[in-house]
Amino acid sequence: MAYKIGLDIGGSTTKLVCLEDGKIIYKNVIIEDSPAHCFEAALDNLIDNTKLNREDIEIINITGAGSSFIPDNFLGYKLNVVSEYEATGIGSAFLADLDKAIVVSMGTGTAFYKVIDNTVEHVIGTGVGGGTIKGLGCLLLDKNDVSVIDKMGVEGNTTKVDLTIGDISNGDMPGLPMDLTAANFGKIKSGCEKIDVAAGMFNMVFQVMGTMMVLTTKVTGIDDIVAVGQVSTLNSCKKVLDDFVRFYGINIIIPEHSTYATAIGACIIGV
């Protein structure tokens, strides 16, 4: 049996995937205070929760910004460093079963890639992403747990904080639905409910991403968009991006296991 292991190592979060004959047999997200501790905890968890032993692990494919802090033969493991953008692009296309796609990697920031027949090209990126959500959550809501902020956002009402086309227009504007956002936080007043602020925050963040998705499809001529990363799994993400599907007719796919796309890609193109 052929095992392949991929680690997508960030600053304090690591995603681990183990494939057996091309199928996922184990996956996990590890949060520790450093890339080295994440690496160690990830391998310990893999061995504790599968039938693998240390001697079964001949090589580990690693990628991500934190991989640069892990020396070869760390803890006795032989390592193979894989390009993060290639791993993300190929892993995402694999999950979506597509040969051609725009891949949107939603991490701390957001990166856009063009993938055609396993060739990956970086298109553009933005600093708006998961880090923005966490930072604004602390600033505006006094919360730093993204899952809690996400729940608040789903319960909130964006029309309490955002100006819509309907708010500023006396009648129909051709091609612009009345519920389309005209100004993020353009209606906010002191004393508004925090759940509505959370909803407005997510609306702003994911509208930036959605707008860039639409523009990227026009620039590249590729219709299918694959959104991956932990941020893509938030309920607020789907809620906002569904509007872009409805308004602009783009095809946004959030595949199963989207959190692990980069680690899966590291397995696929690694050894």
What is the helix tally? 8
Helix content: 25-40%
Count of extended strands: 12
The stretches of 5 or more residues where confidence is low (pLDDT under 50) are none
Shape: globular
| Cα end-to-end separation | 14 Å
Please state the CA-atom Rg, rounded to the nearest Å: 20 Å
Based on helices, strands and strand pairing, what is the structural class? alpha/beta
Q: Could you walk me through the main structural features you see in this protein, from its secondary elements to its overall organization?
A:
With 271 residues, the chain is α/β, with parallel strands linked by helices. Helices cover 38% and strands 24% of the residues. It has eight helices and twelve strands. A hairpin with a 2-residue loop joins strand 7 (110-116) and strand 8 (119-126). The longest helix has 27 residues, at 194-220. The radius of gyration is 20 Å and the shape is globular. The protein starts with a strand and ends with a helix.
What is the fold's blueprint, element by element?
Layout: E1 3-9, E2 13-20, E3 23-31, H1 35-49, E4 60-63, E5 79-81, H2 84-96, E6 100-106, E7 110-116, E8 119-126, H3 130-141, H4 146-155, E9 163-164, H5 165-168, E10 181-183, H6 194-220, E11 224-228, H7 235-248, E12 251-253, H8 261-269
Parallel strand pairs: 1-4, 4-5, 6-11, 11-12
Antiparallel strand pairs: 1-2, 2-3, 6-7, 7-8, 9-10
Helix pairs in contact: 2-8, 3-6, 4-6, 6-7
Structure summary:
This protein is 38% helix and 24% strand. With 271 residues, the chain is an alpha/beta fold.
Labels describing this entry:
271 residues, 5-stranded mixed beta sheet
